[in-house]
Structures are given as C-alpha cells and as structure tokens.
Amino acid sequence: MSELTLEGSNLTYVVIAAVIALVALGFAGALVKAVLSTGTGTKNMQEIAGAVQEGASAYLFRQFKTLAIFVVIAVVLLFLLPVHDLDGSETAVKIGRSLFFIVGAGFSAFIGGAGMALATRANLRVAAAAREDGGREKAMQIAFRTGGVVGFLTVGLGLFGAAVVVLVYKGDAPTVLEGFGFGAALLAMFMRVGGGIFTKAADVGADLVGKVEQNIPEDDPRNAATIADNVGDNVGDCAGMAADLFESYAVTLVAALILGKATFGADGLVFPLIVPTIGVLTAIIGVFITRLRPSDRNGLVAINRAFYLSAAISAVLVAIAALLYLPKEWPADWLQRLGSTDLPVGPQWVAIIAVVIGIVLAAAIQALTGYFTETEKRPVQDIGKSSLTGPATVVLAGISVGLESAVYSALVIGAGVFGAYLLGGGSVLLSLFAVALAGTGLLTTVGVIVAMDTFGPISDNAQGIAEMSGDIDERGARTLTELDAVGNTTKAITKGIAIATAVLAATALFGSYTSSLTTSLADAGETNIGAYVSDLLNVANPRNLVGLLLGAAVVFLFSGLAINAVSRSAGAVVFEVRRQFREFPGIMDRTQRPEYGKVVDICTRDAQRELITPGLLAVLAPVAVGFGLGAGALASYLAGAIGAGTLMAVFLANSGGAWDNAKKLVEDGSYGGKGSPSHAATVIGDTVGDPFKDTAGPAINPLIKVMNLVSLLIAPAVVMWSVGDDANTGLRVGIAVVAVLIIAAAVVVSKRRPIAMADGDDQGKAPSDQDDDDLEPVKA
Amino acid sequence: MSELTLEGSNLTYVVIAAVIALVALGFAGALVKAVLSTGTGTKNMQEIAGAVQEGASAYLFRQFKTLAIFVVIAVVLLFLLPVHDLDGSETAVKIGRSLFFIVGAGFSAFIGGAGMALATRANLRVAAAAREDGGREKAMQIAFRTGGVVGFLTVGLGLFGAAVVVLVYKGDAPTVLEGFGFGAALLAMFMRVGGGIFTKAADVGADLVGKVEQNIPEDDPRNAATIADNVGDNVGDCAGMAADLFESYAVTLVAALILGKATFGADGLVFPLIVPTIGVLTAIIGVFITRLRPSDRNGLVAINRAFYLSAAISAVLVAIAALLYLPKEWPADWLQRLGSTDLPVGPQWVAIIAVVIGIVLAAAIQALTGYFTETEKRPVQDIGKSSLTGPATVVLAGISVGLESAVYSALVIGAGVFGAYLLGGGSVLLSLFAVALAGTGLLTTVGVIVAMDTFGPISDNAQGIAEMSGDIDERGARTLTELDAVGNTTKAITKGIAIATAVLAATALFGSYTSSLTTSLADAGETNIGAYVSDLLNVANPRNLVGLLLGAAVVFLFSGLAINAVSRSAGAVVFEVRRQFREFPGIMDRTQRPEYGKVVDICTRDAQRELITPGLLAVLAPVAVGFGLGAGALASYLAGAIGAGTLMAVFLANSGGAWDNAKKLVEDGSYGGKGSPSHAATVIGDTVGDPFKDTAGPAINPLIKVMNLVSLLIAPAVVMWSVGDDANTGLRVGIAVVAVLIIAAAVVVSKRRPIAMADGDDQGKAPSDQDDDDLEPVKA
C-alpha cells in the first residue's frame, strides 16, 4: 500500500480542528473564572464544602496512585505487542501508541479530576446562589455552566488529541489512536467502578442507618456518613462520569478514524474530525443559550431546548460540510478499497444520513429514557402504585420496567446500526464506516450532554450542603430540590446515550478487528485468507458460540462483582455509623460531632480494593479468550459482551432511575406520602437501585470499550502465534492460563472478605472474629 | 444423495429402542398402581386434596382449550412452509411433520396432565403416610415413585416417538422430527409460562396478605389464596416442569438425530437412539434403588446416591455400546460427509467421550447449583447475614449471588461444549454432532432427574394438605418439612440441567440450520454457496450484530413480561384476599370459610391471558428477524438468545433458590429467627425470587428451543424468498412487518391492564375505576 499523506486543504482542516479544540478549552477556562467569581455563601456552608472537597481530593489522589501501577504495566505490555501494516517505522509507531496511551489516560484522569475539583467548588456556589433573589435562574446557571466546563474539556481534549495524532502520524494514526482510546477507556473504567463503589457504599450505608434505623432525614449532619455521601456524588457522578464520557468521545472518534482511512483514504482521516469540530461549535452555542426562562416549568425544559437546538444546528452544518468536502460520486480508488460497486448512495449522502442517524438516535434515547424514568409517566407511576403491596412488589415492578425498557433502547440502537448498515450496500466495510459516522453524529451532542449530566451531582450536592448547614430558607430549598429532580433525569439520559456510543463504537471497531486479522494472516503467510476469516468468524461454529457465551458471562460477572462490592462496602459503613451512634450518644442531640472522616476513609479504601477484581477481569478476560480459544472466539466474545452489555447497562440504569423517582413520587404525597409503609417500600426499591444505576450499570459502557480495544491490540499477536511459522500453541495457551489464573485469584481474594464488616478500626476482620454485638438486627 | 435405508441390525436396534420405551411406559403404569394403592388419610385431608385436584384439573382443561387454537394455527403454517432435500414425497413428509407436531404437543400435554393428575393424588398419600410409623421412609418413597412415573413417561414417550419417526421416515426422519420437537417445545413453553404465572400469582398473593399483613402462617386455611397456592404447585411445578423436561428430552434427541444422519449416515440415526435406550434402563434402576436408609442424613443423600450410580452405569454401558456398534476407524463415506480428514480420534471415542462429557456436565451442574442454593453453603449464609441490614441488602446480595452463579454455570456448560467441539477436529459438522451426543449423554440422567424434580412439589403440597387439615402430629410434620427442603434443592438442580440441555440442543441445531441454508441456497440456484454462507454468518457484519442484540433483547423482554404478569396477577389475588377478610370477618376466628374457588378462578383466568404475549413473542420474533433482516441475522439472533438466555435463566433460578433457602435459614433460628426484622427481610427476598425462579427463569429453556425450531422451520422459506428466481422482498418484508405488528399489539394490550387489580367480580377494571378504599396501604 502506498504511503498516505495529508496535503493542501486536508492539512488545513485538521489544523482547524485542533485550533477549534483549543478554543473550546479556552471557553472552559473562561467559564471556570465566571463560576469561581460567584458568591460562596455562609461560613457554615464553606466549612461543609471544605470537608467534602478535602475528602474528594484525598480519594482521587489515592485512586490515581493505585491506577498508576496499572498504567505502567499497560505501557510495557503495549510496547511488546506486535503492530502491522505501517507506513512509517515500527518502533516510532509503537512508541507513539504507548505515548498516546498515556496521553489518553492522562486526559481522562485530568477531566475527571478537574471536573470534580470545580464541581466541589460549584456546589457551594449553587447553594449560596439559591439563597439570593432570582436564585432559581442563578443557581441553575452556575450548575449548568460548571457542567459546560466539563463538556468543553471533554470535546476539546478529545478532538485535540485525535487531531494531533492524525497530524503527526498520518497513515499510521489509526494504530497510534488505538493507544489513545485504550488509555482513555481504561482510566475511565477504573474511575467509573471506583467512584461508583465509593458513592453508593456511602449513600446506601448512610440511608440504611439514617433513614431506616434512626429515622433522621437525608443529609442530616448527625449521620456520620453524610459527608462521605456528598464526597461520593463528586467522585462517582462527577469524576467518574466525566472520564466515562471523555472515553466515549475518544473511542468513537478513534473507531471512525480507523475505518475512515480504510474506506475514504486520507479524506477519511479528515471528515471524522470535521464532524466533531462542528459539534464543538454547537456545544458552545448550546451551553451559552441554556438559560432558565421564568416561564419554564422546570430546568429540564431549558436544557431540552438547548439540546434539541444544538442538535438541529449540528445536523445542518454537518450536511453543508459533507456537501462541500466530500465528492458526489465514488472515486475509483475508494471503490477499490470498498470492494463493491453495489452502493446505494454517494459519499456525501452516506455521510449526511449516517451522521443524522446518530443525532436522531441521541434524541430518541433521550425521549425513551425520559419516558421510563420520569415521575409523571406510566412506568414510574406503576412502580409507585405497587408500593401499596409492599417492598417485594416494588422491587419486582422496577425490575420488569428495567428489563422492558432495555429492550426498547436496544431496538432503537439496533435500528440505528441497521440503518447505517444499509447505507453500505454491498460493502461491509462501508457499512461499518457508516456506523462509525453515526457515532460521530451522536458525538456532536456530547458537549451539551456532559453539561447536562454534571448538572445532576452538582445540584444534588448543593442541596446537601444547604441542608447540612441549615443556612437556607424554604424558597431556596425548593429551588435546590427542583434542580436535584431535574438532575436525576438528565443522569439517566446520559447513561442511555453513553451505552449507545458503546454499541456504535464497538460495532465499528469490529471492522478494525477483522481487517487486523486479515493483515496479520497475510503476514503469517496464510494464502486463502478470505475463507480462513469467514470460518474464524462463523457464528454457527461451536467454538464461537462458547466465545459468545463467555462474553455475555463477563458482563454478568462484572455486574455481580460491582453490586457485591457495594454491598460489602456499605456494610462496613453501616457498622461504622452504628458504632458512632452507640459510642457518642451526644450525636443525636447534637452535643457531639460525628467523625465524618472515618467513613470517608472506609469508602476510599474499600473502593480502591474492590475495583481491582472487575478491572482485571475486563482487561484479562479477552486475553484469556483470545489466546486460549482463538481470534474467532474472541470476536464472538466481543459480540456477546456487546449484546448482553447493552441490555444489562440499560436495564440497570433505568430500573435504578425509575425506583429513585417512584420514591420521589411517594415523597410528594402519593400512596400515603412520607413516612407511610409505601414510602418505606419505595426507599427499599431505591436502595436496591443505587448500585444498579450508579455502579454496575454505567461501568458497563467503558467495560465494553476496554474489552474491544484490548482485543484489537492483541489480535496481531493472537494470529501470529496461531498460524504460520511463528505458531506457538504452548505460548498461546500459557498466556491464556496465566490470565485465567490471575482473574480466578482476584475473584477468590475478593470473595474472602465477608459481606458484613466489623466496626471502628477493625475493618479487616470478619464479624465472627470479634464482638458479635455489632451484628444486632436492624430496628424496623 | 442416495436414499437412506435402515437394514439388518440397524432396524433391529431401532425396534429394540421402541420396545424398551414401551417397557418404561409399562413401569410407569405399575408405579401408578403402587402409588394409588397406599392409604389416603383422614376425611379432612381428602376434602382439601379434592379441592386442589379440582382446581388443578379446571386450570389444565382451560389451558388446553387456549392452546388448541395455537396448535391448529401452527399445524396449518407448518404445512405451508417449504421442505428440502427429501428421499420420499414432499407431501408425505409435510403431512408427517404436521402430524408429529401434534404428537409432540400431545405427548408434552399428556405428560404434564398425567403427571399433575397423579401428583394431586400422591400429595394426599404422602401426607397420609407421614402420619404412620416409619412414615419418613414411606412418604419419601411415595413421593419419589410418583416422580418416577413422570420420569418413565418422559423418557418412554420421548424415545418411542423418535424411534417411530426413524422407523417410518428413515432418511426423511430429521425433517419430520423438527415437527415433533417443535410441538413438544411449544406446548412446554406455554405450560411453563402459564403454570408459572398461576403458581406464583397465588403464592405471592397469599404471602403478601397472609404472612405480611395478617401475620398468619403459610398454608393457613383462613387464607383464601391457600388452595390456589397448592393448585399452583401442581400446575406450575408439576405439569409445567414435566412438559418442559419432556421437551428438553425430545429436542435434544431430535438435534442428535438430525446431525447423526448428516455425519454417520444411517448409523447416525441409530446410535443417538441407543444412548437414551440405555438411559431408560438406568432410570429404571435409579428409581427403584432410591430408598431412604435410616442412616441417611436427609432425602437428598438417597437421591444423590441413585443419581450418581445410574450416571456411572450409563457411562459404562454407553462405552460398551459404542465399542460394539461403531467402527474403530473412519469409513470413507463418513469422511466424505465430514469434509475433513483431520480428526483426532475414531468414531468410537468421539461417541464415548462426548457422551461422558454430557454425563459429567450433569453432575457438575448438580454440584454447582447445590453450592449456590444450599442452606449450609457460603452464598446462602451471606444472604442470610445481609438480612441484618434490611431487605434492600438481602435483595442485592441475592442478585449478586445469582449473577455470579450464572457465570460459573455458563463456564461449565461452555467447557462442555468446547470439549465436544475439540472432538470434531477439522470438521465443524462432527463438532456439532459431538455436542449433540453430549446432549444425549446428559439425557441418560433425565429419568432420575425428573423423578427428583417432581418430588419437590409433591412434598410441598403434602405439607400444605397436612397443615391445612390439622390432622398431623409433630413428628409427621417434621418429616414433611424435611422432604420439602430437599425438594427446594432438587428443583434448582433440575433447572440448571434443563438449561444445559437447551444450550447443547440449540448449539447442535445450529448445524442443522447451517445445512438447511446450504441446501436451500442450492435449490435457489446460488453457485458460490460456501462464500455466501460465510458472509451470511459472519459475526462482524453489523447486520448480524443487530440480530444478536435483538436475540438478547427478546430474552430480557420475555423475562420482563413474565415477571410483570406475576406482579399483575398477584395484585389481583391480594385485593381478592383482602376483600374476603374485610367482607367475611368470621374468617379470622374460623367461623366463616373463605371462598377459595374465587382465587383459583382469578389465577386461572390471568394465567391464560398473560401467557399469550410472551408466547407470541417467542414464536413471532424469529419470524420477524428472519424475514426482515435475513437468514444471517437470524443465526446471530439465535446465538444472542442462547448467550443471554443461558445466563439469565441460571441467574433467575439461582437467586430465587438462594433467597428461598436464606429465608429457611432465618426461620431455623439464625439472625433473630422467625418473626424478627431479619425474617421479614428474607421473606421479601423470597417473594422477589418467586417469579424469578418459578416463572421467568424456567420458561427461558423452552423459549430458546422454540425460537431455534421456528428458525429451522422457516429457514428454507427465508432463503427461497431472498435469493434466486423466487426472491420476493415485498413478501418477506411484509411477513416481518405483520409479525412485528402482532407482537407490538400483544405487548400494548397486555400493558393496558393496570398493575394493581380491582376486587371481587370486578376484575377487568382499573382500580381508579372503582372504590379507592381497596387501595389501602399495606399494614407493616
């Protein structure tokens, strides 16, 4: 293959993309200044916010320390894995891939860290603003603009990173980008899992003792877990989510660029950058036009207005860009690459329709998720009604709502993929690129979506700070409650969209996987490559069915481990909070202060410990399947993980969201209202939903990406050691066995920790090792 | 292809198989006589048992009426679908396929009905025996022998049906067997779903009002739902389960025979009959050696002894049969059929190892399920411990146990499939046959397994009858409680084994599907068939990924619908029981008798209504995917359904079983014992688990088989209307659209029924239509 170059206007466009990415970062800086310049409320508020800030930073620092080890190991392994089909030098590309792995991981970490640092400051300012006149509009603006910062960082750094790689590595950019995407996804997955465990351990633990046993309200300062709960909102919902969305952005872009090169050549490395460049511009518009009008029923109206407007602008601008940039008819060399002349429309319309499919998909998921989780709609109403027959029926109703809603989301996503597929006509390669372009279409809305999502935890935390400080009047409290409710829905929507990007990106990456197999087989001297690949990827082959079953199994295991981790850590929190109530009787009449720091410490330590097993599973399971069962089984493995993962992720997110809002429904006075048995039943449903929606569910998105990228990275090695002169069954099976053993050891070790934890400083021991009085039954 | 004949010893073997099948039926008759000749207890007991019998028969009669419509429609459609590659006349084979569809459905219905009829009589006799001296051994024997009847019916009718088809249709037997298997699976699925809804609606409804609100024990005659609950045990756990296991038996046999012909020719139509013939013999041994010794800790010890002994005997006899019957080396015509000479072992050892894999798989699943659901083991202990922090943590702990246990079962099943796959060496066809043979190996244990499983509901019901009649002393009650606990574990084990047969049969049927595609493509005039099929089945094709996603989605939707149906029907039961307590105040002091029949009526009607939507979904979803997205997407659809279905089925069965036993653990005195908040928490967990383990979970097994067989049946039509002269996109898409519309309409209609139901005779209306007093909150 001849070397690929970037010339003339193509070079200019990539430079423009990089510059606009920097502009977005500039806007982020400006917004930071604006947010920080607002009022910081009362001394009480500042003290509480300070404690939250401190806990959050301590957690993040510790998490980065843990992850640094993983990053170092990954860099080394990454450098050892073979690469194929390069224009430039192998060593240079390998170094680039490792380097940009670090950059991807660093960006992911930075966005999470910076977003969280700003959020902990914005919480306070939102709470302060709610006290003032016109507080509703002001508070909403601060919260949304803080989200805007994270949004700009996400799109800015994602686009900048990808543009730089394309500028520097040109034809070898796809290989280097695999490193970039992998770094982003790996870090994001760890931050999602760790943050998710922290936030829900604290939340569940706080609720179980506070609301259920002691009958004190949420965010009551007498609850020792309350600061940890607020820290959790920041480390889980802010830092974890921001990293996750950055990862979605980066990986989708990577998939589009890899396939772009394979289909459109040099132009295919440029057009996928033009689409998100337009997305950056519309994100800027979206964030700045989001203003709550006094006539708006609630904040969601303002946010939806911004979302749909910026989506529409994106669609129009992308269409114009495609018409100007892409050729009307298929050039001969493109047709040759695609291997088919049976193409329904020209390049312009492939691009336009695909991108519009992505944008429409985002809107459809937004509507669908809203239907299944909004308080006024039938599903949540039904769950609320089932509280009349007790907690068991609430749990069952939520589970069936979740299962069904997952199906509708899967149908919508499936329709999107199938629509893009049809654009490819006779060329599977073009179909895959169309799927990837639909992904970039979805990305044009990411700026606003991140802003929407970050909005949630900030409002939640602002409410916490206001509540704990006691320095807020009724009107201010109402404002914050309203914002918090809006935040619940936006959070659910973001999760739906994130999983949609996972499916699109993962589907597209399949194309890269297949072409990597082809190249590697050629290198290994295989002659009848077409037949070989077809046999490898035949879904009816029992070996591949086993792979598929394993892929689905990993999703179940990962979810089970994450939920289990929350149960265990929450148990530890419960015993600690109970201990404090028992040993410091002055807490209840407010003459003694709980030791908040202890609970923060427990959550921090447990989250670090518990994230290792699911993390190892995500990285090593594809290694075990690929080296052990072969490249074909690995492909089916990925397919199984995508299928089961999509449904599981939406199921967990939506049943959790629906339970949360069913609780709010009862709290607003339905079916007996606060304090009734119905309320108790919905609180139980909500608690079950906590790790569903905030730990296991959202982590499945980066999980799928990590497994896809690991597979892509190891594919050449798997083929090399399976076929031809370098075939080495012993080595292959050996690697697989080691991977399996490490996973098994991690699972066994994590199982050895008992579910119910000891109290005080005695965390390591099983309850049976010590005083059994701690195991007193809950007081109903 | 030359016509296939059965000659000489082959003919003899098939006749012997048929005769031995009849012998099994004779044993069934003898056991029936033996069971019915035992004592029938007190008048009180007889009255109660009579009411249960009556309710169960009424339900089954109504169910068969509903299903008759489905059967008629299916027969007509079956006759219209094209067939390919026949030795004999097309019309004869089509008539045979339709006829044996009716036979399969009839056998399935008969086994369910007869098993249930006998069970309702055996319940009474077990309860009566428990009152006598030596009651423990006697009661156990009656219960297990009744199970034995169902076991003999299952293996006898399954083997007899298959042997007759082979005798009559010879080379065309595979096509006719598709009808036989489909009939069995379709009926079984409906009986599983309908029975599952009935039993859990009654159970959950009874518990919610009785245990939770009125604080009266289970099976208390003052509870209006208590007869319905006992009827449910018979229609769900007995009739539904028996039909399901017959279906597993029949479909596995069908898959083995189809592939047997394709690989070993005429011998391949005989050997898969020899293996279950041996199974029949060992089942007879197993049932008759099961005798509780006074030294046995509990009934499970006796059952396990019988299971492992008959499994070992099977393995030895099958090995001898293979060595005698199959050639040592590969005959030339077999090698030609297999398309490869790279085969690791000869036919004898392929057969022996594959069958042993199946037997070992059954034992492994038995052990694994036992670990995750037995009271003494860590997982159930952990769930019990989590009851100290309330119902939410119980639910979470059970869910994570279920998710993880599903993974281990999937690993074991996957290992079995992979082991069988390796036997095939270079021939995928041989690999598939090995998988099917592993399935027949698993089948050799089915006789004992059915006996084990039926044992559960009989003991449960005997306890109910004894409890309600009041005519039992403490020792007798203890005996029945012990038997009931054993029944819980055997039920969970059976579900695990049933899903394993689903995976093996479905994997094997993939081979038939692929070869059906090949034949159909040849008929349609396609020349480059190999490449065409490979492209069709390539898992990396986005179209196929969409199919896979839809397959996984159907499993989620089906589960959600089933759980939802139970919630809705249980709500109706709750309101009816509450109404009776309110309107007949004499019930509580036993001066008035509740109207048991009303609750039975509600459950009967609701079960019929609610089973239609999941039933239509199972039959029509593959039709929509196949005709709409093509044969390739349909294959991936099946793969996705197998992957997600296996995990979902085990997850639902095991978390349900674990919750049930965690409740028993607390009831036995742990963590506060009966009446404590911990007990309340585990009761909630158990209630959540009820529709998991007895409605949604077990129905997934026949669901997978139904979808597989529908796909196999429509494959020729899909190909015919896609490729070549008969290609007709309009017709294809039209059929798909109609299928989608019917599914959508069914889902919408079933949604229109509100969750909480009205009381009394007012069942059809929403609660909002009437007196709101019925919607009183639960009394905590």
UniProtKB/TrEMBL annotation, chains A, B:
The record marks K491 as: Determinant of potassium independence. Keywords: Cell membrane, Hydrogen ion transport, Ion transport, Magnesium, Membrane, Translocase, Transmembrane, Transmembrane helix, Transport. It comes from the Bacteria. InterPro entries: PPase-energised_H-pump. The chain crosses the membrane at residues 12-36, 67-84, 99-121, 142-169, 175-193, 246-264, 270-290, 302-326, 346-373, 394-422, 428-451, 496-513, 545-566, 611-629, 635-654, 706-724, 730-749. It catalyses: diphosphate + H2O + H(+)(in) = 2 phosphate + 2 H(+)(out). It is a multi-pass membrane protein. It is found in: Cell membrane; Endomembrane system. Its cofactor is Mg(2+). Residues 757-780 are annotated as: Disordered. It is an enzyme of class 7 (translocase). Its EC number is 7.1.3.1. Its main location: membrane. Residues 769-780 have a biased composition (Acidic residues). Belongs to the H(+)-translocating pyrophosphatase (TC 3.A.10) family. K(+)-insensitive subfamily. HAMAP family: PPase_energized_pump. Homodimer. Proton pump that utilizes the energy of pyrophosphate hydrolysis as the driving force for proton movement across the membrane. Generates a proton motive force. This is K(+)-insensitive pyrophosphate-energized proton pump.
